Amino acid sequence: MRRLLVANRGEIAARVVRTCARLGIESVLAASDADLDALPARTADRVVRLGPGPAAQSYLDPAAVVRAALAVGADAVHPGYGFLSESPALARACADAGLVFVGPSVATLEAVGDKLTARSHALDAGLPVVPGGEAADLAGARAVADRVGYPLLVKAVGGGGGRGMKLVRTAAELPGGLDVAVAEAGAAFGDPRVYLERYVTSGRHVEVQVLGDGTSAVALGDRDCSVQRRYQKLFEEAPAPLLGDDVRAAMADAALALATHLRYRGLGTVELLYDRDRGSFHFLEMNARIQVEHPVTEAVTGLDLVAEQLAVAEGLPLRLHAGDVAARGHAVECRINAEDAARDFRPAPGRIERVVLPVGDGLRVDIGVQAGSVVPPHYDSLLAKLVVHGTDRADALARARTALDLLRIEGVTTTAAVHRALLDDLELVAGGVDTGFFERWQARRRDLAEVS
């Protein structure tokens, strides 16, 4: 690979550019008008204009991405995460233009992008799935609910990330929850279809990183992503704490079974729901792209996952095998967003006035802004990821506390203070929290504020 078009923005664009520099690959950033002078644009070898600021006219336009790649003579396109990273349309357009798409095949993207189809493939591969089914209308939803029971989740067929997802606790809530989920799914993904799944009250969100070359696949360890607000991940760690060796091995085997069944090529993540009460797990979905939280896996394995992703995209066989991968120590990641926690985490765009990054052993900050950067209102609010690696979990958490105390991103409101408070919470420190933890934590904070 000689020249790579990076069709994304923010910290993931800067992250891909960094690996390109190490590998001697020329990086060309495809940037919208809002990002032409952003940090990734200043670090890439070249910059090409992709379109206006709104994502629909730039980062979400497959034709614009392909035109930009061809205009600069790129060999390949890296879509990062979000935007078009799991788009069969972009993968197909790249193939038609003779460009390498850094991701799975069109067939695989179609297979796992539709959540109902992905459930079917998981069942064929022998994985347990959360009980549920499609809800074409209210009558169908009621039929599924009668079989599955309450509480349940209404989920978008064509997407994820918490959009088009609603918790329904009783039969009376079903009509309203269904209407809201259908509307959100249609607006976010252009696909209003939804399905229902049983809601596991004590569920943990655990995922397994996989890498395949279309013939064979390898599991690269697991992560815990259970600290979430409205189904949006806030804090991740690797390996997932307080899992028995038998459960951890079974999860890896399940992820490999699905990757093998799909003849998966590229970097992917099999997301699982671990039921703390029953000690069992179920398949949730597969993300056919690099994840936001991939640095914690890199920290404990010593791998560069972007480099491995680029290698298999070029058609090279796997350079890793099961015996080559071993977790060392523990890593945690805090997502630093431009959001105001005091105002229900409302996005806080503006101009960055000052950035001071902590340094030290086992510390990494993936960041997409610098002093003078403008945080535009068009995109996701993620600014940076603070990644800390320690000898064990307690050491990683202690290092993360120190790093957060030293971090400064001034000019906009961020979630750094939220993470600092989280890391002092006894429930989080104990480990193994479920997906309802953050709401409980917020409630405890409100109660303390009222008492004081």
From TrEMBL:
SMART domains: Biotin_carb_C. It is an enzyme of class 6 (ligase). Its EC number is 6.3.4.14. Keywords: ATP-binding, Ligase, Nucleotide-binding. It comes from the Bacteria. This protein is a component of the acetyl coenzyme A carboxylase complex; first, biotin carboxylase catalyzes the carboxylation of the carrier protein and then the transcarboxylase transfers the carboxyl group to form malonyl-CoA. This is biotin carboxylase.
